[in-house]
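Sample 3 of the quickstart, ligand magnesium ion:
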Amino acid sequence: MTRKLSILGSTGSIGQNALKVVDNIQDDFQVINLTANSNHDLLIEQALKYRPLAVNIVDSESGQIVEDKLRKEDIEVLVGREGLLELAKRNDIDLVLNALMGTAGMEPTLLALELGVDVALSNKESLVMAGSLVKQIQEKSGAKIFPVDSEHSAIWQCLQGENKEDVQKIILTGSGGPFRTRDINTFAEITPQEALNHPNWEMGNKITIDSATMINKGLELIEAYWLFDIPIDHIDVVIHPQSIIHSMIEMKDGSVKAQLGVPDMKIPIQYALTYPRHIETDWERLDFIKLKEITFEMPDYERFPCMGLAFESLRQLGTTPAVLNVANEFAVYRFLKNEILFTDIPKIIKGACEKHEWMENPDLNDLQNLIIWAKDYVKSYN
Ligand code: MG
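Result:
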């Protein structure tokens, strides 16, 4: 049976890989919607190839270009953030892949789940910011979330066939990023170019900086907490520089299950789309003989304070993880523009978490106000 798929953020790294997955399992999916932020050339190219019913481009200047090209092709073009939300409110699909970047991805996840549409979730911010809200909505609608992130996909795969009560802990692995061994006294001198140079994964700029500060691992911890419903003290982080073991679970009898593979996002994306099947591919295989070694280290919280701040935010819950996330996102943009130092990022996050007005159960409106507040807080940091 062909399933109807919407890809939000189709021109980003995950979106492009998702379309390669669609190429691999062509008969199983019909692409209904594609959306992009501003990459109009690639969106047009994708639209002409996959013939969706509708596309959205958020940037209004790019909107005109896309409309001119696709109008005669009988593909509906929606422009702006409103257009994105309008698409997210349509339930003419079976599955949404949410590969939007950052805070902007939260609301489309909530809208899809409300409609009872399952979400293959790559956007971390949805669960980090609105974890309890997502849970409430899922309870009502019954819609499911299929994790796309490599770590969460690994845990999900390891959990297949197991009883949840037999799981002792979840072990999230992380590469440690590009600054794992750099002299800690030189962190203030780190440039955006250096931080954008990730050893194993090719990703968008925002998430690459998040890997360099290692807040990425903290955000993934918060996501794991909501996805797998496990107490925070039962989630560990282990540094594994080769990014071959994507994460593990330890059972109560001491048995450990791990999921391994080459660092290729197409594999977890495809599993999220074809679950519970592992469909054949001709992609690169893991070669254990070439691999030589897989090593492990303790995470270094002194070197990467953002990771500790994320752990702390999960202990506080309520609005703290949301503020942490927004403050980080806008601090990263300021760092990429050379306005602040690499070492200012954790200072900004800490300040925002401490100064914001904490609430236990924020609704969407509260979260939207919080985004505005945190954005202003980051802007005013000098
Ligand atoms: Mg990850």
